[in-house]
Amino acid sequence: MDENFRIKQAEFATSYCIGQKLPAELPMELAIVGKSNVGKSSFINAVTGNGKLARTSQQPGKTRLVNYFLINRSFYLVDLPGYGFAKASKTEQKSWGELMENYLASGRVRHVIMLIDIRHEPTMHDLAMFRYLLYYGIPYTLVATKSDKLPRAKRVAQANANAKHLGAPPYAIPFSSQTGENLQLVRDRIGQIWADCLPRDDKE
Ligand code: GTP
Ligand code: MG
């Protein structure tokens, strides 16, 4: 595998909502989950090096659809709507639940990158999401976002403590889409997941 995994090409592919057909499957679909406003769309923009790819907003609840991005013309990165959006109505919460249930239970997702805010203990929604991943046996990587908001000396310990609170092994990657902290580490992780998905013959 390439030591420094590179994203050479990234483009918006399609959006999915309930009732529509999902796009044809590729060898890998990597989904980004996390509470509303945690930085999922910013994460996708940072990782792809394209600040305009996924729409971001200071207002929680910006992403309402499942957005597919095609990476290196080979696999999908998938931006999901956030959970725990305080102002969401009951109807919105229900449709969010159905959308996620439909999507995550589809068996298409090879790996989930779950984002948690480095500054806060996981919420009950984070706990529910994490249990969901375990229930469906979906492999995951934990990334602690907005690391720039904590003093450098506290980042690793805080990220790991939050992972532990979630009930996971105590490891989350401190990450900032603003400063690019651990950006290459995250890209390499994606490269690793991608290499694991390929049939043996295709591996470099
Ligand atoms: P929804 O689509 O509503 O679920 O939100 P999201 O998780 O996609 O969050 P988004 O990427 O839109 O970011 C939300 C806000 O957090 C925006 O104002 C971003 O600029 C800010 N933000 C995202 N990542 C970082 C980060 O690493 N550091 C800092 N300081 N701010 C960030
Ligand atoms: Mg978003």
Write the layout of secondary structure elements.
Elements: E1 10-16, E2 29-34, H1 40-48, E3 66-71, E4 75-79, H2 90-104, E5 111-117, H3 124-136, E6 140-145, H4 152-166, E7 173-174, H5 183-197
Bound molecules: guanosine-5'-triphosphate (GTP) and magnesium ion (MG).
Magnesium ion is lined by residues 40-41, 62-63, 79.
Any overview of this molecule?
With 204 residues, this protein is α/β, with parallel strands linked by helices. The chain has one domain: Rossmann fold (3-Layer(aba) Sandwich). It is built from five helices and seven strands; from the N terminus they run E-E-H-E-E-H-E-H-E-H-E-H. It has a seven-stranded mixed sheet, with helices on both faces. The radius of gyration is 16 Å and the shape is globular. The N and C termini lie close together (5 Å). It binds guanosine-5'-triphosphate (GTP) and magnesium ion. Magnesium ion binds at residues 40-41, 62-63, 79.
Could you give a short account of the major beta sheet? 7 strands, mixed
Terminal-residue CA separation: 5 Å
Number of strands: 7
Put simply, the count of helices is 5
Structural class: alpha/beta
Bound molecule types: guanosine-5'-triphosphate, magnesium ion
Summarize the structure.
With 204 residues, the protein is α/β, with parallel strands linked by helices.
How would you describe this structure in keywords?
204 residues, alpha/beta, Rossmann fold, 7-stranded mixed beta sheet, 7 strands, 19% strand, globular, binds guanosine-5'-triphosphate, binds magnesium ion
